Amino acid sequence: MAEVKDILTGLDRYETFIEKLDKEIEKMDDYRIAIVYTDIKHFKYINDTYGYQRGDMLLREFVNHVLKIDDKLICAARVYSDNIVVATRLDSEYSNNEFRDLIYGRNMELERMLRDNYLDEGLRLSTGISIISKDDRRLDAATAVSNANLARKLAKEMKDDCCVLFDNQMIEGIKKEVEITSSLSSAINNGEFKVYYQPKIDTKDLRLIGAEALVRWQKPNGTFIFPDEFIPFIEQSGQIVDLDYFVYREVFKFIADRINNDEPVVPVSVNVSRVHLSRMGILEYVAELFDEYQIPPQYVEFELTESIYIDNTEKALQLVEGLHDMGVKVSMDDFGSGYSSLNLLSGLPIDIIKLDKVFLKKASANEGRLKENDKIIISCVVDMARRLKITSLCEGVETPEQSDYLAEIGCEIQQGYYFSKPIPQEDFEEFIDAHFNSCSAVV
């Protein structure tokens, strides 16, 4: 009975591919098997824009390229749409990394050709590779393909690399992601998340004039999971919205309690994730918080990272205008970490720019001393902000020299470990009280 092939590409059906690969794994001897899983970014755009006939032509060109992988091809299949998987024998001619580099180079050649032919700069290949040796024969074909597909998904998320080689740490990463995302709701309800506050200091007289709210996750056993470990996962899953809303409510309640108890209060800034731009429910939620807690709007600020403005300027502008309508100030966080900072400032109604800590990071590595070139860059940014009537704040201040230089060039606000690390709410309340009591004593 003749094998049933994919009508459009002539490749094996996926079920047939798995059968052939399982048999090859069983008899594998002194060679390795490479599974190469590839798709085309923007393929749907080609179908929608130029029609399916043009899309089918692109897919055939793509398949022809993939099949030229070498002369040791075992089998190839179209999994679905533009997802193509290939298995090939790999002998001692290539190391694993050399094979990955070979596929990367061929991908780059095809990308250039496709962009020229289809006039779409967004066309890009994403490839994952898993390699099986004779010691891995306990793996079945489906698992090997799944590993290559996982590497492909990681390649799709990366800006600078279209080809990723699978390793077992990726599985651990997936397990960690599942553990974090599945436990988020219960962690919020169980009080495992805490809001920490990092003070902001007025450069002129070193007065406390605000703070940034940051989140920390402390497990019941006392161990901490830091933001760098969990934020990327829950941002990707969309759950970051729930965490942001938790932080906003905690900050509003903190400010309201201070006001109601006739205690000193300073403005607190909270962070906005890029996920909010695709939902825009944030404006309604913030309006509800103002209605519930009845705090003056000048006590809350919102920070959007520079990358959010770059990724979706129109939506970011709508969000900034909506917050301004409530009387809330908005800052651009991580300013200078991207490539479009100056263009953004000319078109967005920003109240504050926060110079990214990268400006001072080099100085920390240089025993806290700022190099002349770094000084020039920081000075120019601060001067530009002043001319645009935008408040400047510099993050990452860690030494007296850095603080003094920022005062010298007129940077208005400073934030960093030189003044205080992020601290729990109870400690920050003591920080506020001690600061205002000392100011009263001086007066």
Brief summary of the model shown:
The protein is α/β, with parallel strands linked by helices. The protein is built from 16 helices and 15 strands.
What can you see in these coordinates?
It contains 16 helices and 15 strands. The chain has helices at residues 14-27, 43-50, 52-67, 96-118, 141-157, 168-189, 227-237, 240-260, 282-293, 306-311, 313-325, 341-347, 358-365, 372-387, 400-409, 425-442, and strands at residues 32-41, 73-80, 83-90, 124-132, 163-165, 193-202, 208-218, 224-225, 268-272, 300-305, 329-335, 352-355, 391-394, 413-414, 423-424. The chain has 443 residues and is of the alpha/beta class. The radius of gyration is 27 Å and the shape is elongated.
Order of strands across the main sheet: 6-7-9-10-11-12-13-14
Morphology: elongated
Weakly predicted, low-confidence segments: none
Largest sheet: 8 strands, mixed, barrel
Mean pLDDT: 84
Helical proportion, percent range: 40-55%
What is the helix tally? 16
N- to C-terminal distance = 97 Å
Number of strands: 15
Strand content: 15-25%
CA radius of gyration is 27 Å
Structural class: alpha/beta
What labels describe this entry?
443 residues, alpha/beta, 5-stranded mixed β-sheet
Topology record:
Layout: H1 14-27, E1 32-41, H2 43-50, H3 52-67, E2 73-80, E3 83-90, H4 96-118, E4 124-132, H5 141-157, E5 163-165, H6 168-189, E6 193-202, E7 208-218, E8 224-225, H7 227-237, H8 240-260, E9 268-272, H9 282-293, E10 300-305, H10 306-311, H11 313-325, E11 329-335, H12 341-347, E12 352-355, H13 358-365, H14 372-387, E13 391-394, H15 400-409, E14 413-414, E15 423-424, H16 425-442
Parallel strand pairs: 4-5, 7-9, 9-10, 10-11, 11-12, 12-13, 13-14
Antiparallel strand pairs: 1-3, 1-4, 2-3, 6-7, 6-14, 6-15, 7-8
